[in-house]
Amino acid sequence: MRVEHEYARCGAWAYLAALDVHRAKVFGRCERKSGIAPFERLVDHVMRQPPYDQARRVFWIMDSGSSHRGAKCITRLQAKFPRLVPVHGPVHASWLNQIEIYFSIVQRKILTPDDFPWLVAAEQRLLAFQTHYEAIPRHFEIHSTRSCRVTRQKQITLGPSTTSRSMIDQYVRVLMSQTTKSARQRLPRQGAADVAELDLRA
To answer: Which among 159, 113, 111 has a CA at the least distance from the CA of 136?
Structure first.
């Protein structure tokens, strides 16, 4: 990276977030670094507030990041939160995870240009955008080809008389079709509507 001689690096945040696509609710936090402990603080932050603390099941759809992958992650999370059902998407398919789409919006609208006078200013802008994003809820319609490698994302504004149920169902169907056999075996055998009832991404 080429910088001016006055440039001074003031540090960086690890921005962790989960998205409830049914309620258009974003749960984000800034941590000094990523890892198992920061990720579990995010999970704890979500799972200890309503409606998730009283839900029969809460599905977390995650990628295979180092802080939350594998059987050890599933065991660790379910030991703390028995109602939590971790679902790992297939490798190289982060486009199925809608929090990744939210991160791309944050990158374009909030972090470009990435020039902040101090870390607190970056944190304030990130958290303020969460509030703004929740006030204008949008979800994403995912279109996939036979190979499921090409997607076209179409943002549709949710009106007061519409719901995101059909789009969530479509998302879960695409995810199920792309999830590996071992991952599918970990999913309960309910329909897509049941799977998507309280669905968060992290």
So the answer is: 159
